[in-house]
Design a protein that fits this description.
The complex is a heterodimer. Chain A is mainly alpha-helical. Helices cover 75% and strands 0% of the residues of chain A. By secondary structure, chain B is mostly helical. Classes of the chains: A mainly alpha, B mainly alpha.
């Protein structure tokens, strides 16, 4: 039997997974931002060009990806506040664990609140 | 034989601007601003009214007819792209081992971001909500009043 290491204060715990999620959500948002600047730039080409491309945001598959985007933005923004509090608030490190769960509950909760209305709009398309 | 270190714990001399520090600070200053800007952007465009269904040329034109939303969106563009680029740069620095690869990736990253910041800024400030040759049905309602004058 190999001994499973107990880990450190960091590895395998909230600190590590919040870091992973922050990174993954950040990269996802960055690539969406590149696409979003380009699709919005089409308003300068013609109303027809913009409207045709923006139709794709109203289809079920891209619509579902938008739920992921909203969740990623909420998590990244709220976890960013957590990082700032850890850096600048004297009690930040003491509460970093509970702050992570607050961030997760808020991000999932607000996304869940947004989901039914958004699903209605993309599924009737 | 021993090496003499005169004052071992004296601080390292900073001869040039500490860009890493300013990059670190930028993330923490732009972050809260972006929360206000982007959360409002998503709320107005996706949570209220008809949500994603309402997004079309007329919707964008209606917003950008007001300098308030032009400046809102341009602020978002600059702050978010620089924030995202600094974040991506951190990731490139973490995972690339060859200095030449690292330099070329970071160079490409800043070029792409710079081009998009320029493009986006030009689009917002040279935008015409009522292009003369466009189908009037696709334009915001206030264009009729302008056309009939």
């Amino acid at each position: 039997m190999s001994v499973v290491p107990a880990g450190t204060l960091y590895r395998g715990k909230v600190g590590m997974w919040s870091w992973v999620l922050h990174r993954v959500s950040g990269v996802a948002i960055f690539f969406f931002l590149l696409v979003h600047v380009l699709d919005t730039a089409l308003v300068r080409v013609s109303p027809e060009a913009y409207d045709i491309v923006i139709q794709s945001y109203k289809t079920p598959i891209i619509g579902l990806a938008e739920l992921g985007l909203v969740g990623a933005i909420l998590f990244h923004g709220l976890n960013g506040v957590r990082i700032i509090l850890v850096d600048f608030w004297s009690k930040g490190t003491r509460y970093q664990n509970v702050m992570f769960w607050i961030v997760l509950v808020l991000a999932i909760g607000i996304t869940a609140y947004f989901t039914p209305g958004h699903l209605d709009r993309i599924l009737e398309f | 034989m021993s090496v003499q270190i005169e004052i071992p714990n004296s601080p390292r001399k900073q001869r040039v601007t500490n860009w890493e520090k300013y990059g670190w600070l930028y993330m923490r200053i732009s972050g809260p601003l972006l929360i206000v800007l982007i959360f409002t952007h998503v709320f107005v465009n996706l949570f209220t009214g008809e949500g994603i269904k309402q997004i079309d040329f007329a919707f964008v034109a209606g917003k950008w007819a007001d300098p308030f939303w032009q400046w809102w969106d341009v602020s978002m563009l600059w702050l978010a792209l620089i924030h995202g680029t600094l974040g991506m740069r951190t990731i490139i620095n973490d995972y690339t081992e060859k200095p030449k690869l690292r330099t070329s990736l970071v160079g490409t990253l800043w070029s792409v971001s710079g081009a998009l910041i320029l493009l986006g800024t030009l689009v917002v400030f040279t935008f015409d909500p009522c292009p003369a040759t466009a189908d009037p049905n696709l334009l915001p309602s206030f264009c009729e009043a302008i056309a009939s004058n």
